[in-house]
User: Fold this.
Amino acid sequence: MVSDEKPKLVYWLDSSLYLNITNQCSNNCWFCLRNFKQGVGGFNLKLKAEPTTAQVIAELEQALSMRRWSEVVFTGFGEPTERLDVLLEVARWIVQRCGNSLAVRLDTNGHGYVINKGRNVAQELKDAGVGKVSVSLNGHNEETYSENCRPTFSGAFTAVIEFVKKAKVAGLEVEVSAVRMPEVDLEKVEAIVESLGVAFRVRDYIPCFW
Ligand code: SF4
Assistant:
């Protein structure tokens, strides 16, 4: 049950801190939790306004002092590269504040280059201190990807594959994930991921109970 408290920019689960820097997304996946829930783990993640870098850092600074965390993950109720500059500024702040003691990861739909035309997204992430990207791929071709993720532009499946290749070239640790559900042919997705030479992870779908 998600509380009525004000929306969170920072939330946590076990030893990981999660950053909810946007509610915008270039996909509209039919299974997205945003369609069914206010948040996760009791945290309200439905933002009333897109936050500034300073607001994210202020909330993050408070959370950092609560305990020893193992990683900070840009994820949340939206696609973090929709706010690329906020993402990069916060990542640089984390590195400055915590050095190498805290891993920085990005969970992304892999549309970063389409959302941020003309930017060298993967290299900028790497330079800002992001170490790892986890890219979601819930389809094995344009057709199945479009059916499941309902992107706002055409050629989205190809865009995700290109993002993975560029992230690898930039020296980021790359993992591709897919959700376990009948609409996703995990074997076919895994074969594509294998051909790209990166890690593959299957995530269990969290059904919504209410
Ligand atoms: S890519 Fe993620 S945030 Fe965007 S609609 Fe799909 S599940 Fe939701």
